[in-house]
């Protein structure tokens, strides 16, 4: 009988109660010292290693912990820190956080700092990574000891770990060349540094080292395949006793199968949750000395594993002589920590779920079943899944009928943009370069305290609503004081841009502590989308209408779009994502129409996740973009041409989706642009984008307040790409996570800069 090991690719780093988030924010505010931050972080790492050890994990990862982002950690390890951060020696936390946030750890002057590294999505996930900046003169050298220190830290606890790092070709792929040079040409300089890292880990006694190369799940040209082969031919010679494991995840190997299985390494990890194509032929040519890690438990969703289906997959590998490991499909970074605190979930729904700790238990269960000793576990699991299939909670006949009958309604068109913009301009009476924000305003401790008191029943609905009304009034007054042209209500009543809507919709459930890291200290708690979706009540009309009554200026209604609600939820797996998104779109359409009837002249339907959801394989992209854009159009179908539809998309590369952005036909699209120094606008210029656009003029993910002069230069640079009649002025994204002092200062500078540019244009005229 085959002996199976358990391999884990990575564990959530934020802690069961978001301890890392809290420690980071205390450190950034100057409330704790660097020593205290490091001490709290070391305690977290110890807890996580022990949890995995007690769960029977044989290959426990280290260096999967990060203070902010694993790609930023690699930038420090490889020593490719951009020159503007002026760091010559070992990279300290000051420089580390300045690269991430544009400001030193505890900087008190909000005007100080440096432009932070650009941020974008990690493949097709909602995790954000910091983009390495390279040029043809970039040099590499080891300038961080984190990976070595954490391996030794675990060793001192009596735990032998498997250090994890991003593979060299994936690292270069994730990077950006800022001088037009080929970033892959740097591989010759990069590989010796990787070799040195491996050698130092071998000297410390590492038995296994994991190198992540998720680009194997993408369409690769022959040159990239050649570079992957070259990299591992070299790296395999740099160690003699330590074994190398290359991990692919997030999709099929497909056309890269031959290159992957022939890598001259000791172990291979494959994602068998999202990459099940031709599973029976995956390793037909693999060297039988290689360890094979089978990613059979979903690392990116929360539904309990179907042991019967999983065992059928594993069975196809039983004939191999190779040592086999059972593993999550990818790092558990993308999963919540534990089901243990979730006593508010009903027992039936809870029985369908598995978070990170439970996923490790699932691997143990599968190992026991494969040993012939876990038949009772298999039977119980089979009965659970059979019962769930028949559960009436999952189905709503009326929703299914409405979805089917709405086919084609996404193409209900208002008048062409050139005609409707005339109507909108006539009614809105906005100046050139109208100023606005993306939607949310800061939520301070008192607001969060009031929300917690309401949830606990300590204050009643009337008291809570009174507080929210006061907060909205303050946010509207602040915008009027600054002089913004189009106002928002600030979203004080919303805990999260997705969870809030989920609470108003049928088909969703909610956890207490199912937090997942999005970037840095930013954590999200995705709702659990388990059943058919419909709108129970109006979701935003009351507060938007109230805010509109406080001003004579146009008020924007703020909605989250259907694709973003899908992408940022834990989504059911028994119904196609296309159908789930259509159901959500119909619910959002009802809200859009109600907002228009309530007299709201501008409605923003945010879709920051459309680009994020784009499949990694070219052959799958067209179908996804069709139903994703159709869902957006459906959510806006039914309003009049005089109602202006906005959307917001952030941290996206628009080059390959511009046709789809155009087909969305939003009157105004606002985008992140400041971290990329407006280069995202190039494609809008090339495509002669006809509608209006609001490129973000300052980075809201940094506490730094840009000056009037800096924003003025950004506005002028926008006009090099887009005609002035098309341009709106706004921040990069929502302001919820920022402090009120910095927000007021930044928005005031944004307004002053806009007025300055307007005045200059009038003088020229």
Automatic annotation (TrEMBL):
<feature type="binding site">
    <location>
        <begin position="438"/>
        <end position="440"/>
    </location>
    <ligand>
        <name>L-methionine</name>
    </ligand>
</feature>
<keyword id="KW-0479">Metal-binding</keyword>
<dbReference type="InterPro" id="IPR038071">
    <property type="entry name" value="UROD/MetE-like_sf"/>
</dbReference>
<feature type="binding site">
    <location>
        <begin position="18"/>
        <end position="21"/>
    </location>
    <ligand>
        <name>5-methyltetrahydropteroyltri-L-glutamate</name>
    </ligand>
</feature>
<feature type="binding site">
    <location>
        <begin position="522"/>
        <end position="523"/>
    </location>
    <ligand>
        <name>5-methyltetrahydropteroyltri-L-glutamate</name>
    </ligand>
</feature>
<dbReference type="Pfam" id="PF08267">
    <property type="entry name" value="Meth_synt_1"/>
</dbReference>
<keyword id="KW-0486">Methionine biosynthesis</keyword>
<keyword id="KW-0808">Transferase</keyword>
<feature type="binding site">
    <location>
        <position position="733"/>
    </location>
    <ligand>
        <name>Zn(2+)</name>
    </ligand>
</feature>
<feature type="domain" description="Cobalamin-independent methionine synthase MetE N-terminal">
    <location>
        <begin position="7"/>
        <end position="319"/>
    </location>
</feature>
<keyword id="KW-0489">Methyltransferase</keyword>
<comment type="function">
    <text>Catalyzes the transfer of a methyl group from 5-methyltetrahydrofolate to homocysteine resulting in methionine formation.</text>
</comment>
<comment type="similarity">
    <text>Belongs to the vitamin-B12 independent methionine synthase family.</text>
</comment>
<feature type="domain" description="Cobalamin-independent methionine synthase MetE C-terminal/archaeal">
    <location>
        <begin position="433"/>
        <end position="755"/>
    </location>
</feature>
<keyword id="KW-0677">Repeat</keyword>
<feature type="binding site">
    <location>
        <position position="612"/>
    </location>
    <ligand>
        <name>5-methyltetrahydropteroyltri-L-glutamate</name>
    </ligand>
</feature>
<feature type="binding site">
    <location>
        <begin position="438"/>
        <end position="440"/>
    </location>
    <ligand>
        <name>L-homocysteine</name>
    </ligand>
</feature>
<feature type="binding site">
    <location>
        <position position="491"/>
    </location>
    <ligand>
        <name>L-homocysteine</name>
    </ligand>
</feature>
<feature type="binding site">
    <location>
        <position position="568"/>
    </location>
    <ligand>
        <name>5-methyltetrahydropteroyltri-L-glutamate</name>
    </ligand>
</feature>
<feature type="binding site">
    <location>
        <position position="491"/>
    </location>
    <ligand>
        <name>L-methionine</name>
    </ligand>
</feature>
<dbReference type="Pfam" id="PF01717">
    <property type="entry name" value="Meth_synt_2"/>
</dbReference>
<feature type="binding site">
    <location>
        <position position="121"/>
    </location>
    <ligand>
        <name>5-methyltetrahydropteroyltri-L-glutamate</name>
    </ligand>
</feature>
<dbReference type="InterPro" id="IPR006276">
    <property type="entry name" value="Cobalamin-indep_Met_synthase"/>
</dbReference>
<protein>
    <recommendedName>
        <fullName>5-methyltetrahydropteroyltriglutamate--homocysteine methyltransferase</fullName>
        <ecNumber>2.1.1.14</ecNumber>
    </recommendedName>
</protein>
<keyword id="KW-0028">Amino-acid biosynthesis</keyword>
<dbReference type="GO" id="GO:0003871">
    <property type="term" value="F:5-methyltetrahydropteroyltriglutamate-homocysteine S-methyltransferase activity"/>
</dbReference>
<dbReference type="InterPro" id="IPR013215">
    <property type="entry name" value="Cbl-indep_Met_Synth_N"/>
</dbReference>
<feature type="binding site">
    <location>
        <position position="672"/>
    </location>
    <ligand>
        <name>Zn(2+)</name>
    </ligand>
</feature>
<feature type="binding site">
    <location>
        <position position="606"/>
    </location>
    <ligand>
        <name>L-homocysteine</name>
    </ligand>
</feature>
<feature type="binding site">
    <location>
        <position position="648"/>
    </location>
    <ligand>
        <name>Zn(2+)</name>
    </ligand>
</feature>
<feature type="active site" description="Proton donor">
    <location>
        <position position="701"/>
    </location>
</feature>
<comment type="pathway">
    <text>Amino-acid biosynthesis; L-methionine biosynthesis via de novo pathway; L-methionine from L-homocysteine (MetE route): step 1/1.</text>
</comment>
<feature type="binding site">
    <location>
        <position position="650"/>
    </location>
    <ligand>
        <name>Zn(2+)</name>
    </ligand>
</feature>
<dbReference type="GO" id="GO:0032259">
    <property type="term" value="P:methylation"/>
</dbReference>
<dbReference type="InterPro" id="IPR002629">
    <property type="entry name" value="Met_Synth_C/arc"/>
</dbReference>
<keyword id="KW-0862">Zinc</keyword>
<feature type="binding site">
    <location>
        <position position="606"/>
    </location>
    <ligand>
        <name>L-methionine</name>
    </ligand>
</feature>
